[in-house]
Amino acid sequence: MGLDPADESARTPARGEPRARLAALRAQLAPPEEGRASRPILPLGLSALDAHLPGGGLALGPPHEIAPAGPADGVAALGFALTLCALHLSQVSGEALIAAAPGEPLPYGHGLLGLGLDPGRLLLLEAGGDGEVFRALEAALHARALAALIGLLRDGLPLKPGRRLQLAAEGPSPPLLLLLRPAEAGMPNGAATRWRIAAAPASRDRFGTLDRPRWRARLERCRNGRGGDWLLEWDHAAHRLHLPEPLAGDAAASGRSRA
Amino acid sequence: MAVAAEGPGGLRLLALDPAAQALGLRPGEPLGRVRARIGVPLRVYPAEPAADRDALLRLCRWACRYAPVVAPFGPAEASDGLYIDVAGASHLCGGEARLVDDLAGRLARADIPARIALADTPGGAFALARHGGADRIVVPPGGAAGALRDLPVEALRLDPGAVAGLKRLGLRRIGELDALPRGPLARRFGAALLLRLDQALARRPEPLAPLTEAAEYAAARGFLDPIGRQSDIVRTARDLMAEMAPRLERDGLGACALRLALHRVDGVVRALDLGLSRPERDPERVAALVSLRLDRLGRALDAGFGFETVALAVTVTGAMPARQTDLGAGSAGDGVGFLADALAQRLGRALLRLEPRASHLPERAGRGVLWVAGGGPGSVPRRSTGRPSALPPPSPSGGLEYSCIEAGNTASGSVAGPLSRAGEGSGPSGCGTTGTRGDGALDPENSRPSPQPSPARERGHVAFLHQDRGSTELGEQRCAQGAGHAPAIPSPWPDHLPPRPLVLFPRGEAACDVLSTVPEGPPRRFRWRAQIHRVAHAEGPERIEAEWWREPGEPRDYYRVECEAGHRLWLYRDGPHATDRPAAWYVHGLFA
What we know:
A: 259 residues, alpha/beta, globular, B: 592 residues, alpha+beta, Dna Ligase, domain 1, 4 domains, 14 helices, elongated
């Protein structure tokens, strides 16, 4: 912008070794990948998962749909969403917003501490319906003031609000956008990924007491990626997701973890 | 036509229309005797004092167009009139006589019979309006004593006993009363008589209790051609805010709550209350909020034939120190604040945050409180609220007040509208600016009321001293979070609690058909929400006592159980185990 192009060209090749220079030149010449390469992502910290997701993590901006496997798994899905939120908030500053349709369970402050999420960084909005949730999320996306947005839907994400959210998320520094919906109502929409979460027996510590929550997470749908099925464990102290080792005696973890 | 109400000895006439008065009827007559006396059928309606009062208050709000200080009659006067303090405001209508003409004309167009008197004092204006003998009286300044001399003593707003006593003594006129020595009068009738006399003759001040206090910062704009489009209203609101902003900036204040009053051509006043999450004086932001609010109203904002006056008043101010502005975007808190305001205006919903409360009981130990910009956990925003108003707040019907003048509801007598010139204490607001002022009580949606303590929000933490393995983990977690962003304020959430569920029910949901291996122990199997749950693992108990200083209750034994399907629940047994009664089990929360 303000620089002299001659000065720029004189300085750039003089730095770094030839291989890096070549890579930089290639990057300059490469066709734009529709902005996908530059789109910010949230790496989940597990190579097994990140390899399935385009760009190596959850894309920030477009909505991600999280559904429970059954009606009883609603809290497990909420826990998984808050886990992703905690993962994101541990890396960036800012606050998260939960916009809930009436009747959807709102988190309990102290339970959030158990997931490693500071309740002070969470804002709640009790909306009057799914439509208000969408409007609130859209306003929050346009405002770009929050780091993560979670919508708790009663009916699900139809195509039109999904597309609107997608458009509102275009632009720099989008937040993480997660939408929780009931188990049924899987309609086509603009979501980037669709997860299905089921509760799984928690890990035990060395005294045999319940330790870390686990979920069976299935990536049902992933645009430009592959689906998958994992057993995930959340370490709230270190803010890390784990794939539990199929240890002897750990009946919960043995078997079905195919990554 | 007549209005009747329950009085001594049955129904009595309260108010009459001209046709009924022509029949020789008088208010106060028993209805039965009247019916027997007159030969024509009489339509009688029951009196509705509350509706009368509402109509009077609406008329008061409408009358704010003349001057900011408008007070309805108090208990000492009758219930069907109002005072307007036109001191310093009459020149806006081209003089006092023109103001009275204008007022009378508008009331006549609205089919409201009225008697208007303008005098130096409220007492004098009242006396002239009630007993002056003309519909429009304007007393020149200083002429009160002369104008009141021939009026009857009832005009002084005395109680009936004093009036009867005066008449017994042959004192019928105010002038006669005034000529007597004051000492014997005070001894005989008390100080109230002299007070009323002095108030009417401007020897002693009489403060009014205005319906709405004059806003310190207000601006209004009138239109020759009424406006009706949303963009015009928004632009006007922006201009009005821009007009007020320098004054607010000079005083280091910002608006915490605004009231936008839209005066429709046909006399209806629409008042929109806008609450802000932090002090604000940026015209663009205020305009954006007004726009969002009008978006939400949509067609409910019935513009009719257009609005002729738009008034914006700052109803609540807050300290807003000067700040160094950034070249780039504002800080993140600003964005959240604006988002909170936008959601409040657009959806009518406030942002909440979770706050712990010092309570042992899980359901009482936390709550959602309204999010306030810059308000860290536990901090209280500095807000200078308006002075309390003397009258009930406007109807909390979504912040949209409907003030209008109905024709035909004034059968309960004519509305007397005295105008007093010399308002003591409360001077008019600056020249060229008239405006209504909100009366402290704002729209419950937009201002920050204390949130309804709905059980769903009664969440939080429990201050129950259990030192176990949860503490070290939470301590580590706090450190891990502290690395992410500056931990300036220590978290108010205690970190020494045993694990708490992610979702807590407002009250425990009963679990039936509970089967335990040992009577004192956790359940092995139970039915909850029409499903059988088999417990694979249980931890506990954690005993939480009832808050006996609030209400007696049984201690609860909480267990954390994991079902075979992997769901983790928080169960409790109400009361300790006893052999003589069955144990009552409740599911109180769900873990992630």
